[in-house]
Design brief:
- There is one protein chain.
- This protein is mostly helical.
- The chain has one domain.
- It is built from 5 helices and no strands.
- It starts with 10 loop residues before the first helix and ends with a helix.
């Protein structure tokens, strides 16, 4: 209805539109649309729920996220990485060292 007035179609126009509508519904995309839509909604919901569950498990099991363990773990890591900075072996000329082997 437009502005309270009904719009009417002739029977031929209605039948033509009805057959076109039925042909459209037989196209694979339109035929399976409701199933696809529901599947995608379900898939998104499952992904969201899994992510929520995994983040809760990580928050519970990951030591670095524990407020009491965070600072001691960081300081232990610094101490463990300190030897990497040390220059334990000094080679003045790499070519000479390689040729002696």
């Amino acid at each position: 209805m437009v502005d309270g007035d009904g719009t009417f179609k002739t029977l031929d126009e209605w039948e033509r539109e009805y057959t076109l509508y039925q042909k459209l519904r037989q196209i694979d995309f339109f035929e399976k649309y409701k199933i696809w839509k529901n599947f995608l909604l379900w898939k998104r919901l499952m992904r969201r729920e899994k992510m929520k569950e995994y983040s809760m498990n990580l928050g519970k099991d990951l030591f670095m996220l524990d407020a009491h363990l965070r600072l001691p773990l960081i300081s232990i890591r610094k101490v463990c990485l300190e030897p990497q900075k040390w220059n334990l072996l000094e080679i003045k000329n790499i070519k000479d060292a390689l040729m002696k082997d």
